[in-house]
Amino acid sequence: AGTAPADDDDTAAAAAADEYHAEAMDAKATLQDERKTLPVYKLKDDLLKAIDEHKVLIVVGETGSGKTTQIPQYLHEVGYTAGGRKKVACTQPRRVAAMSVAARVAEEMGVKLGHEVGYSIRFEDCTSEKTVIKYMTDGMLLREFLGEPDLGSYSVVVVDEAHERTLATDILFGLVKDIARLRPDMKLLISSATLNADKFSDFFDAAPVFRIPGRRFEVGIHYTVAPEADYIDAAVVTVLQLHVTEPPGGGDILLFLTGQEEIETVEEILRHRLRVLGGKVAELVICPIYANLPAELQAKIFEPAPAGARKVVLATNIAETSLTIDGIKYVVDPGFCKVKSYNPRTGMESLLVAPVSRASAEQRAGRSGRTGPGECFRLYTEYNFVSDLDDDAVPEIQRSNLASVVLALKALGINDLVGFDFMDPPPAESLLRALEELFALGALNSRGELTKTGRRMAEFPLDPMLSKAIVASERYGCSEEVITIAAMLSAGNAVFYRPRDKRVHADAARRAFHAGNAGDHVALLNVYNAWAESGYSPQWCRESFVQHRTMRRARDVRDQLGALLERVEIAPCSSAGGGDLDAVRKAVTAGYFRHAARLQRDGSYRAVKSRQTVFVHPSSGVAQAPPRWALYHELVLTTKEYMRQVTELKPEWLVEIAPHYYERKDVDEPEPKKTAAATTPQEQTTAGSTPTKQTPNLNSFF
Ligand code: ADP
Ligand code: MG
């Protein structure tokens, strides 16, 4: 290096290239060395032998032992990919994990991401003809069954992170078990971080369990003496105390939070307090990681902090087992996570912040003891840990709305849902609800069979209500508008932004999209169309206080929805071009009629069928002038039940569009005051379970 003659540009360039190449080779050599230090490496031959001998194998090993990144590579190396003719699939419950792990494996193999190694997540397919190792979300593999019911292009399916027991993973269990029986050439690996693998083994016909002995150093556990009133504040204080009092360069900190908003709040507080402390303390590098973090920033969490600095990773429970960050010595665990909960009686699904399970708490603590002794600070009392936490989290299938998976199963020709091979069956009530919902949407007929509408709906990787709105757009002549709205709704909640110093401008810009108080759905449509008219300009986004990143994603999603429209043979057609926004709103209503609510005298709303009291979210464009009848996209529970994305509705549409669901009396005005006043809370809740008008014969559904 540095010896190239300065007078010869070519030679210098060649030398620089050589040097670059040498460096790249060095990096590759180091990566290869690193691979060999992973616990799974020592067992490589035994593992491959076990896979060869058994059809189904349960693989259990401590997080970070190399299961996810190494096993697919081993399988590729010994020929399971048949020289490019077959693929190895590896499922992940989370999008970020699928992307991040694929990037790492591509790097280890020295190939470009998307070539031999790729990933597939909803609305983002980073694979090619060359791809032999494919990381994907469990939901995407589930969708692949629709196109290829025997998964014939895969020689091995690895269902990874099985202990997470996500809804899609649980459904996959039943499906892959079935095809593994049918396909003698296929191997199935179920990989998990928890040690009680017996349940998996039992389910898969007593499949053998292959254990990868973990290396885990001693972890000191610390509890608070009294419960913390404000865990965010307690977390910030703990992180700063650790940073200031522990020797610099002596290890990084991992703080578990419940979601993006919380992570952003903590990031802001930390930055502020560090500014106040000024040069008195060493540098603290803050690395957030959550599902919607842009890919460019995801890689940052794996970069070591500069010399003398410390890194603090602010993560959701993605860092519990899915991603392993080297160098963590301190874990701060407030003991909460976001969990989905579902009330089959009201049909309401919500995300709630809840205490973690003991199994999760143990996993979190373990993250600090991977490369040396660690410390875990639990921001709750030992008594809490022992007496209040559940042993394990409840599988998602038992606390979810099942409409989406039931539709997928029906589309796969699986009609006997009760007879489906569930590891833990969902509550019968949830199944019934899902069938009712799909019947109301016209996806199933009264015998529980998939209709043509249902078949078309199943093609879209969306919630059935949104799929229905798209399918219905054909009838209302507005497929162009409805896929735009669907894309905007799917691209994320962050469409607008509101910088602190420009609130007035931002609010004015935002109001402009709400001209005519046409509702939030139409406003989203307006935003997209204006952006498209600007030539998809980032400059336009800045001027309009619209997030360019969200818009780009919406455009990708829209392109894919457009392709799916073609697949289900719905012609592109536009009504709003001719100014008919009612057509657009009717199509949305065809999907979301169950989300109709009526304004009350006190300014709140009451859901027409469930009789639940709900409110317009302050961010909604209709918040200033609430319509008498409204339709919402979703409910979010913060301080109250808020409707997010609200649009005005004409009550007669409900009877016109969903005559099997609404009767005249549901929407006749004025609302009979007497009943309203006389409704006791008891009645209000039970009213939620009122069967649909035309109750299908549910027995025949099974
Ligand atoms: P397991 O699946 O058993 O939990 P992994 O295969 O995920 O283990 O991890 C093996 C190693 O690879 C860990 O040391 C981890 O830090 C590293 N690793 C995984 N993903 C990345 C990444 N995106 N960047 C850097 N290192 C990574
Ligand atoms: Mg893993």
TrEMBL record:
Compositionally skewed regions (Basic and acidic residues) per UniProt: 665-674
Family: Belongs to the DEAD box helicase family. DEAH subfamily. PRP2 sub-subfamily.
Biased composition annotated in UniProt, kind: Low complexity: 675-687
Swiss-Prot/TrEMBL keywords: ATP-binding, Helicase, Hydrolase, mRNA processing, mRNA splicing, Nucleotide-binding, Spliceosome
Domain of life of the source: Eukaryota
Reaction it catalyzes: ATP + H2O = ADP + phosphate + H(+)
Species lineage: Eukaryota, Viridiplantae, Streptophyta, Embryophyta, Tracheophyta
E.C. designation(s): 3.6.4.13
The name this protein goes by in its record: RNA helicase
Bias kind Polar residues: ranges: 688-702
Organism: Oryza rufipogon
GO cellular component, one term: catalytic step 2 spliceosome
Keyword Lyase belongs to the record: no
Repressor listed as a keyword: no
Gene Ontology molecular function: ATP binding; hydrolase activity; RNA binding; RNA helicase activity
Helicase ATP-binding domain ranges (all copies): 48-213
Domain Helicase C-terminal: 238-413
GO BP annotations listed: mRNA processing; RNA splicing
